[in-house]
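Now for one record.
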Amino acid sequence: MYDSSSPFVVSRLSDAKMRLPHLRALFFGDILREEHEISWINQSDMSPLLNAYPELQHFRVRGATGLRFTDLSHDNLISLIVESGGLPEDPLRDVFAAKLPNLEHLELWLGDSNYGAVPPSFLTPLLTNNPFPKLRTLGLRNYEFIDMLCESLIQAPILDEIRVLDLSNGNLSDAGLDELLAASEKLKKLERLDLHHHYLSDEGMRQAQSLGIPVDLSGRQVAEIDDGNEYRGILASE
């Protein structure tokens, strides 16, 4: 329900920890668009759930309304995926403050400002002072401000630390790609660059392919023109 939240389910799952002592992976909120729009999924604090399962390695949650990760500390979590149509400031701050010493894969669906997404400046704590020493895959996906983010990324120390960069499902244009290519020597050290669901021109795609690393350029989109204004949508917003 759009007017219901998830504490009850979090509590019930946490209480079941003795029955699931070796739980390794959990997708919380696996709700399809046909069932409920992503930005209308109400969540709550996920920390009690993660704390209840110390052997959990992979956690994925869909929906960011009311989402928190307060005082999150987990020694065995390898991957954390947060899917949203707009990821607000509070859960971002929680994630960046989390103690996750073995995290290797972080994927944030940042979303659209109409549904809570914040500007790239709110990602500065992650980009400039990466709190996750083992992080190898960084996904900053489904983002309305992806072109602006590319400008921040070219100077970000985290680009020297990761092996896979995923900027897919957003509205990347040639302008954003040009900013990103200013750090081409850093990009060439990556094992993979994921840009699928983009708005690049033929020339932009050729430039991306010239990096000499695997680049996913599938799913090219075409901008909509309304009253002379160009509209480039992300994959999931409402």
Q: What stands out?
A: Residues 42 and 65 are 5 Å apart (CA to CA).
